Amino acid sequence: MSGTFLSGMRTMARGAREQPRLFGIAIAGSVVYGAGTAASGYLVGRVTDRVIVPAVTGSGDVSTADVWLAGSTLMAVTLVTVAGILVRRVWAGAVAFTLQAGYRRRLARRYLELPLAWHHAHPAGRLLATAGSDVEATWQAMFVLPFALGVVVLIAVAGVAMAAADPVLATVGLLVIPALLLANIVYQRRMSPRVTRVQQLRGEVSATAHESFEGALVVKTLGLADEEVERFTVDANRLRDANVAAGRTRGAFEPVIEALPALGTLAVLSVGTARAAGGAVGVGDLVQIAYLLGLLAFPVRAFGWVLSELPRTVAGDTRVQAILRESATTPWGERSFDATGGPVAVSTTGLGYRHPVPATDPLDERPELPGQRASAVAPQHDPAPALADVTLDVAAGSTVAVVGSTGSGKSTLAGLLVRLVDPTSGDVVLDGVDVRSLADGEVAGAAALVPQSTFVFDDTVRGNIALGLDDASVPAGRRVGDDDIWRALRLARAEDFVSALPGGLDELVGERGSTLSGGQRQRLALARALVRRPRLLVLDDATSALDPTVERAVLDGLAESGEGTTVVVVAYRPATIALADEVVHLERGRVVDRGPAAEVAARDAGYRDLVTAYARAAKDRADGVTTNTAGMA
Ligand SMILES: Nc1ncnc2c1ncn2[C@@H]1O[C@H](COP(=O)(O)OP(=O)(O)O)[C@@H](O)[C@H]1O
Ligand SMILES: [Mg+2]
């Protein structure tokens, strides 16, 4: 706890240093609130002595002016106090929200700078959670910290005022403060793991629900609805039990914390009436002490709130800092390509790649924090290389088909060729230049990768293909007009379906392209690559959802467009392979054989199996469909 307390307070101090002006205003407001509240207690005592007691007992002269003066002074102090509260709350919120916004921006920038290999090792869900809830958790205590600091002032001033009025009664009354603090600390310590557990379970329930909705099709078709309901019920019941446990703790502590100040006031009043009767203390002093005690009851809880937030502060900040401190970057070189047009020659020597081991959660290294999982992280072994010793030579303008079974390293190779990741051994050379010595933007300007899974943005067809290149701010040489877009659509064999859309290029394609078929999405992704007139085009299984005839037309079109593009295509279909000048057979990350398709087929049995198995499966499927239709007819 003390470790958490100190780290949490260090984080708060850092936040205050980063926003000194906003934090200073919040503290000033809080001090005004604390001093004003204490002053109102003092005033109530004085008004009792000078106005109320004389008026009630009829022992003195109370003019209307006195009543007005007393009332308006109290009113003025109250207004100042209220202004302090307003300033404190508004600026405390400003500090917390400004810090949140600042850290989210820093994280987002960091995410963009970090290379893809780093992202592969860090699940996107966790990165989102860090930018969202972890940042929020880090600065949650900031909302109450100025309040708690103002309460310190309040207790100090009120304590002095009480002691000046009557030291004995002040001691009796102020005994309540340590009791309240203790009760609050015990309460928050009991509560905080329970609240953390509720948060965790809430996340699990929503994850389960989310998965069920996402997999609705699978659930329905396999008739798993009952199992899913059961799975959800288990999670929901656990959340209910955790909430009930938290509620029990709250139920046990809240009344005690509510009752303590009342008990203190009772003690002050019983001791005080005896002392007042004996003349040791004036009625005004007694009223002042009882009143101040009542006023303190609520603010003292601010300490409890800050204390209860600190574990979450430390947990959130640990995750945030782990990312901000991450030093991995893509080191860009200085060079640029000599030629600005024409196909690029590609060669690799001894190319190897090991996927990074999934990163551990930084929280797993802080065992003192509540709520973290026991280390459920993958063992730290070196994974087998996804690619090893791949040496290739692709002549400028030629087409190479990469063939291999699932997991053989085809996508890894595709990513390396366009420098999505850097190799762990060997090199990739484009037009005689090592990609690592090329300046930022050079590879992206010359090469295009159409990945295995296509992504379509919630935008128009035009927006999805141009992706910003149609903006007037883009230099004329790189700017993309509608003519270029139609040309790319024609090459991708997407022209017909786009012109059939009611909005044409302006048609919105919906979230993730939900209004398009898989094949249509793939053709848009293809057009997106082609509109950039790439000098190297890498297609990672990017035509899998196309009919074989369409796929063939696309590849033929590429060859005939005379644009001069080197094409590396991950392919299964014999028809696609037939278009390639050379095939490369990959197995377990290594090149088994390479050469013209016919030669490889003649001497490489594994390749033959792969290609004929695919062809046979396709034929069986076609036959199966025919038989079924025949049967139904
Ligand atoms: N992000 C990743 N982290 C760890 N291993 C990966 C990752 N992506 C792929 N792999 C592994 O690398 C190998 C090659 O994968 P990949 O290049 O995607 O194969 P292919 O595209 O030929 O199916 C596989 O064994 C796969 O399990
Ligand atoms: Mg793949």
Explain what this protein looks like in three dimensions:
By secondary structure, the protein is an alpha/beta fold. The protein has 2 domains: 2-324, ABC transporter type 1, transmembrane domain (ABC transporter transmembrane region fold, Up-down Bundle), CATH 1.20.1560.10; 346-354 and 383-632, P-loop containing nucleotide triphosphate hydrolases (Rossmann fold, 3-Layer(aba) Sandwich). The protein is 62% helix and 9% strand. It contains 22 helices and 10 strands. The strands form 2 sheets. It has a 6-stranded mixed sheet, sandwiched between helices. A 4-stranded antiparallel sheet has the order 2-1-4-5. Helix 8 runs antiparallel to helix 10 (225-277) and helix 16 (482-491) packs across helix 18. The radius of gyration is 36 Å and the shape is elongated. The site of magnesium ion (MG) has 5 residues, from helix 13.
Brief synopsis:
The protein has 633 residues and is α/β, with parallel strands linked by helices. The chain has helices spanning 2-18, 20-57, 64-113, 116-121, 124-139, 145-165, 167-174, 176-214, 216-221, 225-277, 283-297, 301-324, 410-417, 442-446, 461-466, 482-491, 495-500, 518-530, 548-560, 574-578, 597-603, 605-632, and strands at 346-353, 387-394, 399-404, 425-430, 433-434, 447-450, 536-540, 566-570, 582-587, 590-595. The strands form 2 sheets. It has a 6-stranded mixed sheet, sandwiched between helices. Strands 2-1-4-5 form a 4-stranded antiparallel sheet.
